[in-house]
Target: Transposase DDE domain-containing protein
Amino acid sequence: MSSWAPTKYKTTNWSTYNDALKRRGSLAIWFDPEMMWTSNPSGKRGRQQQFSDAAIQTCLTLKVLFGMPLRQTTGFVESLLRLAGLDWAVPDFSTLCRRQQTLNVGLPYRGGKGPINLLIDSTGIKAEGEGEWNARKHGGLKRRIWRKIHIGIDEETMEVRAVEVTGSNIGD
Model:
């Protein structure tokens, strides 16, 4: 009895195959020149924000996609804007750090074709304080904070449809 062997293909057009392999590694990032990179005046007292939420979200998205620290992200965005021929200022790392804490990111909503079965679950996450074992053994600080994350997942597509973070005192 013979064992299974993967199918082998013979490459006949090496130049086309080589070009296809090179295209796998290509990267294209487009910046819309009409994008609101700078922020409009808010009408509130104090210094106005220099960069729009879209600019901050763009920088933070690139940070997460490429796994970079904030300082490296500012240099990366600076070079991308220079390559795109755009003379826009880039938020510095402290601005990105400060604004990421209060940035409201809207998750895109794709409507379903009909009713969905939503699977809901929650889990706890330790936010602050030492471990429970250490606190029991040594009588640690009373300041042990837990957060609960409630997640709703579409049963058919396995897409996350809802996320809510609450305190530990909220029940399921």
Q: What stands out?
A: The chain has five helices and three strands. The mean pLDDT is 84.
